[in-house]
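step 3/5: co-fold with manganese (II) ion
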Amino acid sequence: MGGRDYGPFLRTLKEAAALIGSGEDRRITVVHHNDTDGIASGAILRRALERAGFQVENLPIERVHPAFLPAIHTPARRIILYVDLGGQGAGEIARHIREGSRVLILDHHKPGIGGALGLHHVNPEFFGIDGDRECSAATLACLFALELGSGNEDMAPLALVGSEGDHQLPGGRAEGLNLQLLQTALSRGDLRRDPESGAGVYRIPRLQDESLQEVSDWIIALAVNGYYRGGSELALDFCLEGPDRRIRDFAREMGEIQREKFRRELEALGEAGAARETDVSWVDVGPRFHPLGLKAIGLFCEELVRTGGTGKEDYVVGFQSFPRDNPYLGSYDGRETKVSFRVTPALRKRIELGEKPDLMALVPEAAARVGGFAEACHRFSAACTIPEDRIPEFIRIFARGAGAPR
Ligand SMILES: [Mn+2]
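step 4/5: write tokens
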């Protein structure tokens, strides 16, 4: 840590905890991502806020979609805490805040430009702390929990689960604020090193001695694959109580559903594999992956690449239609499709050589041109949402950009 001064950041967290902890209202809604880091964050906050006398409602979501904000910001919800998401949509969220309600965002993703009035946004990135490497959302949530009460130190292992899920512990090495909580958890015996299983493997005795990676795998099976069957609830229970029979059965069932859906889809594509347009291999699974969560299409694109179902140097694009019913927020008939992007290993090399454009250069612009929006864009993987009836047009626009010489 090199004697880094986290004082100003921790003071801001303390103020945020005071803001939430004070007041008469004892009902709070925690809105969080449904991936490993988000679920671990949601579990930490549920336990810590319950200990502080709150009645806690967890709302796990796949992303902040403008259409769902009115369903989140209802009059009955007076205190809303966003964690692991919300930072990039702060401006949009601010427009839905009702008078007399309090909204706090705890996020570690690089915030967009421009602030938002009427809400508090605590983010390590504001303090020069790298939210991609030194502080997962679960670490942030745990530090917030420690400001609510020092009795929450037992939540530190879950902070590391979130860090693992967000790939912030390469080879088991933690940095920055993640490292602080790793030391807390080890010194209390809430986490133990397991050198016999490999360097950098940590296990959580309280969760039946599962490793951080195993816990993360459980959460993905439950909350990501099982999202549209309410599996996020089980994932939260799992984080706080450990796996029971019901949780193991559900996770296994979701795993089977995923394998079966993928197998059928590959079979239907047959020898020819994905459809081709210049430099682009694409597949539209429509609603066929239901009830799997929207991350399924990205995983399927990876499977397509692995099984050779794409062109050798292609961008790989998958479409999965947006389910009409959200288990937490009710129905929505926007008729949209989620779009996932991957690249083949050969294309990745060419992008690295600067011979082809990366996904950050292609996706936001193509999405905007058909009235959609980009969500999570990295160089070699990305996602966006577009209207369902504009898929053919989108493929043409994307293929034109992809074929353009760099
Ligand atoms: Mn995260």
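step 5/5: annotate
The domain at 274-403 is CATH 3.10.310.40 (Diaminopimelate Epimerase; Chain A, domain 1).
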